[in-house]
Specification:
InterPro entries: Glyco_trans_9, LPS_LOS_Heptosyltrfase. The protein has 336 residues and is of the alpha/beta class. The protein has two domains: 142 residues, Rossmann fold, CATH 3.40.50; 167 residues, Glycogen Phosphorylase B (Rossmann fold, 3-Layer(aba) Sandwich). It contains 14 helices and twelve strands.
């Protein structure tokens, strides 16, 4: 069993580690939170997904009660994993989940932990600071003897459906396009609405056909950003169909959010609008064709701020149209 209890992007970056575990142990059961379940189902080598919301991870999680914990204990006992690999971000502790795993009788548990685990962990792994998150997760399972299969380069990867619903299929086959994804769960990590709309307008003025993507909760945002210039796909895709939309795209322009990792996982070039509130060395989309934009020396650097603390949001709104177009043009073979 592999566990990662937070967002879709966090789940996607565990993909190489999942494949390494599967190479040694066979198909993997993935324990995910509600924000990551759909992403877990896209990972190669995942045979089943258990969903459980961790009160120490999600802001909107239910109260931690004995019944809530017992529901996970029961599911773990039913599955009966021989091993549990707990993946976390560098600022999270694996020990609450390890405790529940012990209550369920999981005989071997491994995790990266700075905190003393007592008998909660059989493998207490220490990862090098600042490494990309996919490599951090892979280092954990490697320490337990799991290696990527021969020929696996360790890239992010998801299973991509070849078919789309008829309406999306027609839109994506009509003509080549680039994608602009304006949203992010953390407001400090995305450009303002007006700046995103201006970027989309600049792309269309330069002759690009633009599709604007977002989930159901972002429909108002995508409508404003797309305006009359672009095709608004807000609320019209699941994560699985979004993967196919991205796979057919020429370039994806996106802030630091789950869809950035999805674009990298389908192998599409990414122009990353990256706010420095978290380190790019760890969280930049993990792929060969990624161009990072955004002022990494802005005053918000490494603050982990959820709301931009700097007037004017200079790290992202300061990205010029010329910079953004030059990045997209580089992948399209254009010169500016």
């Amino acid at each position: 069993m592999v566990a990662r209890l937070d967002s879709a992007g966090d789940v996607l970056i565990t993909g190489p580690a999942v494949r390494a575990v599967a190479s040694r142990h066979g198909p993997v059961v993935f324990l995910a939170g509600p924000r990551g379940t759909e992403a877990a189902r896209l990972l190669p080598a995942v045979a089943d997904v258990i969903e459980w919301q961790a009160p120490w991870v999600d802001f909107d999680s239910p109260e931690l009660t004995s019944d809530h914990v017992e529901s996970l204990v029961k599911q773990l006992r039913d599955v009966g994993p021989e091993r549990m690999y707990i993946n976390t971000s560098f600022h999270q502790s694996p020990l609450p989940l390890a405790l529940i795993g012990r209550m369920a009788g999981v005989p071997w548990i491994g995790a990266i932990s700075d905190d003393y685990p007592g008998t909660l962990l059989d493998l207490r792994h220490h990862a090098e600071p600042g490494v990309p998150e996919p490599e951090r997760a892979l280092s954990l399972v490697s320490a337990a003897g799991c290696a990527l299969p021969s020929g696996d380069d360790g890239a992010l990867r998801v299973d991509v459906a070849s078919a789309l619903p008829p309406d999306l299929d027609e839109i994506t086959r009509m003509a080549p396009y680039v994608v602009f994804h304006p949203g992010a769960a953390v407001p400090a990590r995305r450009p303002t609405v007006d700046r995103s709309a201006a970027m989309v307008q600049a792309l269309t003025d330069a002759g690009y056909r633009v599709l604007v993507t977002g989930d159901h909760s972002e429909r108002a945002l995508t409508a404003r950003v797309a305006g009359a210039a672009a095709v608004d796909l807000g609320g019209r895709t699941s994560l699985a169909t979004l993967a196919t939309v991205y796979a057919r795209s020429r370039v994806v322009v996106v802030p630091n959010t789950g869809p950035a990792h999805l674009a990298a996982a389908v192998g599409t070039p990414v122009v990353s609008l990256f706010a420095p509130v978290v380190p790019a060395s760890q969280w930049l989309p993990y792929g060969r064709n990624v161009i990072r934009l955004g002022d990494q020396t802005a005053p918000c650097r490494l603050t982990r701020a959820r709301q931009c603390p700097v007037p004017g949001h200079p790290c992202l709104d300061g990205i010029t149209d010329a910079e953004m177009l030059a990045a997209v043009d580089q992948y399209e073979g254009r010169t500016t």
